C-alpha cells in the first residue's frame, strides 16, 4: 500500500501530469484539499472510491484516515494544490507517516508561480538581466518567516522575486522591496493563475498597491518583482548561438 502525495496543479484541471491522472484513477481512497483542488479532478477517481475533503480536518484527523486506509491495504491519492515541494504542508504529514511506518511517494505538479509566469508571457531568467529566482512569502499568523528571510534581506540580491500568498500584504511587500529594487521596478500580480477567473495586473512597485486594490485581489495570488518583467535589448543566450559548436551526429 502506498500514499501518493500528488501535485494537483494551480487550478486548471488539465494542468496535471499523466502519472497523476493514472494514479488518481487507480486509488480507492482520495483525500483532497478542498477548494484549492479542481473538482474536475475528482471525476478521475474510481466510481466506488472514498473521497474525503480535508479542508476542515486537522492534521491528526488526516493522518488517521491515511493510517486506516493503510491498515485496510488501500492505496491513497492525497491531492495538494500546485506542487508538493513548496508551501504544501507535506513535510509534517510525511514525518508522521515515517513514524507510523506508512509508505509514500510524491508526484510533482505544476506550481502556481510557473502558471502565473505563463499568464504574464515572461521567462523569469533572462540573460544579462537575472539568472536567479527567489521564491518566498511573507509572515502570517500561522507561519512566521525564519530570521534572515525577510523581503529586505532577500531583495539585496536583485534577483527575480516571486512572493506567494502575499496579496493581503501588498503594501508591506512593496515597501520592503522598493528599497532594493526601486519604485520604478516592473512588478505584476497574477491571481487564480490558469483558472477561468484569472486576473493579471502589471505595473511597477510605485503603482502596484493601487492596481491590486482596484482589481479586488485579496488572496490566491502570486506577486512578481524584477527587471525581467520588462526586459528588452538583452543578449541572446549561448544555447542556440550560431557560434556554439554542435555535433553532427
TrEMBL record:
Q: Which domain of life is it from?
A: Bacteria
Instruction: List, alphabetically, the PROSITE patterns matched.
Output: SUMT_1, SUMT_2
Task: Provide the alphabetized UniProt keywords.
Answer: Cobalamin biosynthesis, Methyltransferase, S-adenosyl-L-methionine, Transferase
Residues of the Tetrapyrrole methylase domain = 2-208
InterPro entries to which the protein is assigned, alphabetical: 4pyrrol_Mease, 4pyrrol_Methylase_sf, 4pyrrole_Mease_sub1, 4pyrrole_Mease_sub2, Cbl_synth_CobM/CibF, Siro_Cobalamin_biosynth, Uropor_MeTrfase_CS
Pathway(s) it belongs to: Cofactor biosynthesis; adenosylcobalamin biosynthesis
| A GO term for molecular function | precorrin-4 C11-methyltransferase activity
Q: Where are the transmembrane segments?
A: none
Enzyme Commission number(s) from the entry: 2.1.1.133
Q: Which BP terms in the Gene Ontology apply to this protein?
A: cobalamin biosynthetic process; methylation
Q: Which CDD domains match?
A: Precorrin-4_C11-MT (cd11641)
What is the uppermost EC class here?
transferase
Entry keyword annotation includes S-adenosyl-L-methionine: yes
Q: Write down the Gene3D superfamilies for this protein, in alphabetical order.
A: Cobalt-precorrin-4 Transmethylase, Domain 1, Methyltransferase, Cobalt-precorrin-4 Transmethylase, Domain 2
Q: Which PANTHER family match?
A: COBALT-PRECORRIN-4 C(11)-METHYLTRANSFERASE, SIROHEME SYNTHASE-RELATED
Q: Which family is this protein grouped under? A: Belongs to the precorrin methyltransferase family.
Q: What is this protein called?
A: Precorrin-4 C(11)-methyltransferase
- This protein's species is Rhodococcus spongiicola
Q: What is the lineage of its organism?
A: Bacteria, Bacillati, Actinomycetota, Actinomycetes, Mycobacteriales
Chain's gene name: cobM
Amino acid at each position: 500500500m502506498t500514499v501518493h502525495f500528488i501535485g494537483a496543479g494551480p487550478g486548471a484541471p488539465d494542468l496535471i501530469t499523466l502519472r497523476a491522472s493514472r494514479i488518481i484513477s487507480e486509488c480507492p481512497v482520495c483525500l483532497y484539499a478542498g477548494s484549492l483542488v479542481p473538482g474536475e479532478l475528482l471525476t478521475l477517481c474510481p466510481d466506488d472510491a472514498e473521497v474525503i475533503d480535508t479542508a476542515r480536518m486537522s492534521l491528526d484527523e488526516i493522518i488517521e484516515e491515511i493510517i486506516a486506509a493503510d491498515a485496510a491495504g488501500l492505496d491513497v491519492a492525497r491531492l495538494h494544490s500546485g506542487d508538493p515541494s513548496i508551501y504544501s504542508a507535506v513535510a509534517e504529514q510525511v514525518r508522521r507517516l515515517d513514524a507510523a511506518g506508512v509508505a509514500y511517494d510524491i508526484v510533482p505538479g505544476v506550481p502556481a508561480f510557473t502558471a502565473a509566469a505563463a499568464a504574464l508571457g515572461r521567462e523569469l531568467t533572462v540573460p544579462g538581466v537575472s539568472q536567479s529566482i527567489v521564491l518566498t512569502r511573507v509572515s502570517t499568523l500561522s507561519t512566521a518567516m525564519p530570521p534572515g528571510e525577510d523581503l529586505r534581506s532577500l531583495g539585496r540580491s536583485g534577483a527575480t522575486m516571486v512572493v506567494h500568498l502575499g496579496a493581503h500584504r501588498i503594501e508591506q511587500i512593496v515597501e520592503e522591496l522598493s528599497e532594493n529594487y526601486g519604485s520604478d521596478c516592473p512588478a505584476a500580480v497574477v491571481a487564480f493563475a490558469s483558472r477561468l477567473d484569472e486576473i493579471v495586473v502589471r505595473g511597477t512597485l510605485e503603482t502596484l498597491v493601487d492596481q491590486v486594490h482596484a482589481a479586488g485581489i485579496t488572496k490566491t495570488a502570486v506577486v512578481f518583482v524584477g527587471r525581467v518583467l520588462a526586459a528588452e535589448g538583452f543578449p541572446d543566450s549561448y544555447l542556440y548561438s550560431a557560434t556554439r559548436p554542435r555535433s553532427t551526429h
